[in-house]
Prior knowledge:
Elements: H1 3-14, E1 17-20, H2 27-33, H3 41-53, E2 58-63, H4 64-69, H5 71-80, E3 86-91, H6 107-112, E4 116-117, H7 124-138, E5 142-146, H8 148-151, H9 176-196, E6 207-209, E7 216-218, E8 220-222, E9 234-235, H10 241-244, H11 260-263, E10 265-268, H12 276-284, E11 290-291, E12 308-309, H13 316-321, E13 326-330, H14 331-348, E14 352-358, E15 361-362, E16 368-369, E17 383-386, H15 390-396, E18 403-409, E19 419-422
Parallel strand pairs: 1-2, 2-3, 3-5, 4-5, 6-7, 6-9, 11-12, 11-13, 13-14, 14-18, 17-18
Antiparallel strand pairs: 4-8, 10-19, 15-16
Helix pairs in contact: 1-2, 1-7, 3-5
Amino acid sequence: MNAETALVAALRAAADHWYGVPGYPVTAIAAGLGARLPANEKVGLEYCLGHSLSGRRSGLVVKHVGLNACADPLVQATTRGISAGVVVVVGDDVTARWSENAQDSRYYGELAEVPVLEPDGATVADAVEEAFGVSEAASRVALLRITPALLESDAAPAPRPPAPRPSPSPADDLTMRGRAARARRGTRDLFRWAAESRLNRPGRGAVGVGAADGDARVVTVYPPPPGIGTGAEVREHGRPFVREHRGLRPPADPGEPETHARRGRRTVLCADCPFAPVIALLKDRGLVPVCDTGCALLAAAPPFSHGVAGYGLGSSVGVAATSTGVALIGDYALLHSGINALVDVHAGGVPLLCVVLENRCLAMTGRQPHHGVEPYLAWADPIVLDATDSAGLARAIAPPDRTTTVIVRGDCPAGARYGTMEC
Length: 423
């Protein structure tokens, strides 16, 4: 059996939901999985994060340039946390044979503080289950890096039955500083995981990475396992990532993650926010929104305490499409990148209620002016309402049976700024 066949079999056994964007060297992998083609790679990862919130394992297959499009939700997920495992299979065209550049995706491990595994033929099947397991244990996305050299090699037998699937839930009361500290503690745990992983093989002399031959084998390329000698030759595909990271140490312990209760205050909506009635209506009707970056995030704060935080600007539509079915997003966030997912969801007829808060400014960063969204959404046949139209809102804010976009218009009070309340 070749490694590509073994990889597809292992991926299919590990998760039920797969998305993929074709391109060398991953086209056959996505096809073998029957992966759904999303509007772009970022939308595909957002769908995976929605599945994760709902307790379902999922994955995304992309080539190296496609991983760039995933950067925002990839990094945000480390801080926000996930539940069920999410694995991104990234194919690196290390010689730019069929690509516009020769990128090395392992560096995203350091940037996003996510585990990166690069198996060889002997470990390709086991590495898939290991990737999902560490994703769940560390509550973040895992990267599985593959290269043409791996896909063309021979593989070991089919994978063993999958291990039990823990589903840690991110803590709800953490401040953003607290979430960052929790994530940093998780990164410290990744170093212990790399040191203990049975996929790595100790040895003397040369160190082989991926499909390269060598006395010692490294599969957990980020963080790298300890004990890679400074004088040893490291054989790897692409840039000298492992050589550059020999001797890397875990980050300092940031201490106990901060909670809102410990800090004694939290940020809330402006006292006269025109969109408060919309959030209240969502809560009254049991419609749980995925809240996008911006004022929409404050729906999760008192007095409403209702909603799930998204994974970066423009992420809520894609995440909601595979989780709660309700997205709460600002006008700028929608045009920034949320519209890609809305197009995809609309084309697929997915039942989704997308509530767009249109205040025509960037309220949380200084009220920079911004144009409205209606001219760009004619294809979606949106319902456009004033925030004061209680009767219209009562009709529009309802469980969807199709993709429904509701634009709610309101003006931020002059001089207003989001408030704070004691905890």
